[in-house]
């Protein structure tokens, strides 16, 4: 029974020494001196703010992309014991002792280091030689721009890691397809492809480019499978469902999970939640939730309410009035109604309160039981403090003469009757009998007499002059001119009015609400709103000193100064390895020219290379050349401020194309021993050049040692590079 113990238990393992050595070199190149400089470097000033907000559980919105990358950076801070207390206000600021610099920079550095062995394995899975794979890894290892970008609290190295992991996983899955379909390893690599793609998209939306490339590649491979007569219909269906599950369903679910964790972590109110809807704000701890918690859910006749414009940008504002009137004549000579001003005010104020009145009754309190207002009901809106009715008429608005003036009606005993009836239209209703609900309902107010819609026009234009206290204009906009979020309002604060007398009502309007009904959004409702804000929220794109165009990237006519030592000449720049970038451009051009030549020759039934070599050439080009194209060309269509680091994913794929082209030239164009020897000598000289450039620019990649002004001038290889030289 115990006979197996008579022999020793032996475990054997194959270790790829080259792969291990490349991994170690990658770790050394990215982790060496990681805490230097102990100061804020370039966009660390941007991402560090989000890390601090994660540590304090304060909600934020970043329009640059999804939250997964930010959470990974915050994980580094959490593991290092960061409490979030640091003022991220300027580049170059010295980190205080409570900031775990090494931990915050660790995950980007690890991701950058692991890109080296990933490059090696991708070339192996593309069926290129061991030498070509090592060459690809060494080029990534010695790429100055990738070193710089991976050594700080930035997201590009993490993005590139997941992109390369997705490509490698798909290649491994595809290579297992023919002989080991539906095996454990087949499923593992297929699922890992989907997970890596989702993670790449979750870090930055640039990950979508590679995701789309892999989906197209998978679709093309499946199309070829359909023509395989050896596969049954059932087998094809299983393959299709497996790919759909792993490459679409699971990535979508994982993408949702990033937001779920993000929202679960950030449950406290903060400055960023002001751009969200009132319902979203009320779901956060503190802030609006402290005001709105327990308000009545259904708006009734007699309700006292504040109305917030749904657009919420560039600032949030509430429907507002005050005792001042419109001037009899404006600066341009046009006349007004001289009625009481109605504006949209960006601050909470007692003059933001309105009372919902039944036009057929005089009372301004809620009856018992309350009579709820429904979609389509006609109401009057009475300003709580001045008791004047919201009104509009055929008089031009002060700043928007094509729209109607909105006012609170004053009876001057002239031929201008009150027109103060408004129809409530619930935009997000489920049926035509829906009740108007606090926070949740988005409503439009349509003027009964003129069909104009109440609109906060000042959100897209200038504010009122001094006579309007620089508040935002409110107008009546004709329905025929279309709909916009500036025409939609929601009830934010709400109480059931109890006081019929005006003095008692004013005291009531100044007092806080205390009711017992809470409103919580579902996760999907919060996700949908947050996702929409991320996609549509746009900061003002201003010209940056180091911004560039996509055309500047190919020839590296630009650089970015990341950090400058306050006293010495030590500095860090985002600059690529000139030799590698030039070689990558040459490789891309050579690949394109050779491919066109081969296609023309094959059209004439002339095969210059064997069929298997042709398939290898095309598949490698599809991954490496295609990866460069999909990660580069879309930037020509983008209207945003661009920087050199946006090109790093594309140039990574382009670098992988170099050994592909070099091996092809060696195998198929250098056919004599002499040519092969000469080609090998050229390769050694070329790689020595790459290494020389890496060493030359290392002080600008690592920030040390400090260079003298003359040494810095010698590194300005292009006039367009902005190398910082202190005046003596």
What does this structure look like?
Pathway: Protein modification; protein glycosylation. Its EC number is 2.4.1.109. With 728 residues, the protein is an alpha+beta fold. The protein has two domains: 35-261 and 547-715, no CATH class; 294-517, Trefoil (Acidic Fibroblast Growth Factor, subunit A) (Trefoil). It has helices at 17-31, 44-55, 68-79, 101-125, 130-141, 144-150, 156-180, 184-203, 207-226, 233-265, 278-282, 288-292, 502-510, 523-536, 550-554, 578-603, 611-632, 648-669, 673-702, 709-714; strands at 303-309, 318-325, 340-345, 353-357, 378-383, 390-396, 404-408, 422-426, 443-447, 452-455, 472-473, 475-478, 489-496, 560-564, 571-574. The strands form three sheets. Strands 2, 3, 6, 7, 10, 11 and 12 form a seven-stranded antiparallel beta sheet that branches. The chain has a six-stranded antiparallel beta sheet with strand order 9-8-5-4-1-13, with no helix packed on it. A hairpin with a 6-residue loop joins β14 and β15 (571-574). α7 packs parallel to α9 and α9 packs antiparallel against α10 (233-265). The longest helix has 33 residues, at 233-265. The chain starts with 16 loop residues before the first helix and ends in a 14-residue tail after the last helix. Mean pLDDT is 90; it is low at 514-519.
